[in-house]
Amino acid sequence: MHNEPWSTLLRTVHSVLRQSPPHFLQEVIVVDDASTREELHGRLYYYFNTRFPKKVGLLRLTNRSGLIRARLAGAREAKGDVLIFLDAHCEVTNAWMEPLLQRIKESRTIVALPIIDVIDAQTLQYLTTENSESFFFAGGFTWAGQFIWINVPWNERKNHNKIFPSKSPTMAGGILSIERNFFWEIGAYDPGMDIWGGENLEMSFRVWQCGGSLETIPCSRVGHIFRHFHPYTFPEGRDTLAYNTARMAEVWMDEYKRLFYYHHPDL
Prior knowledge:
Elements: H1 6-19, E1 28-33, H2 42-51, E2 56-61, H3 67-77, E3 82-86, E4 90-92, H4 97-106, E5 110-119, E6 126-127, E7 137-141, E8 147-151, E9 166-167, E10 175-179, H5 180-185, H6 199-209, E11 213-225, H7 240-252, H8 257-263
Parallel strand pairs: 1-2, 5-11
Antiparallel strand pairs: 3-10, 4-11, 5-6, 7-8, 9-11
Helix pairs in contact: 6-7
């Protein structure tokens, strides 16, 4: 997190502690990417030390590193068999963790994704997300390198049963679970990406092309605040989304990268 509002950060941590089986939750690592807000310093340390169990830790980065490198820093500290990455503005629901862990236990190369519901940014009301056909969505992408939500293909709607896991081409990126050793075997996040943007597609392409797969697990649901403004500041005003996405295209898209550059002639 970087300059995350106090209330949403604590809501995330409290929901994880409240809704997760203690015997499955080995630790919670909150990575502070050099936040500058006053309440996220001494006051936050005091709250963590007095209100949370010892399994909740705060890892503070002294220099601004960005989302990708901050997640890598947290992953290096993690000791559990499975890594679950969460944005700092989420709320997990009852029995959210068990379906993710079960699917990874069945196949360690599966990156298990919950259904992402919407938390209203103004009222903080938790809203479920279902499309008009009462099926959840999968992650897709455009040739311009943008993440989009798509309908689950018919061949993935096994017997029209909404409780079965479904393969997803890409992921939104804010919430995912992955077996820790597999995460490092496929190369983890690309540390050459800056600040924010494109890491979700890069990791999606990496997983699929390195022998893994992405699956949406409909029995697991997590709420997420989708903000109407950009919460991050970019050093020197650099367009890191364009840079990161171009880096992803160069590494993973092979001959199809020409379609990406067709939409970005300025890169």
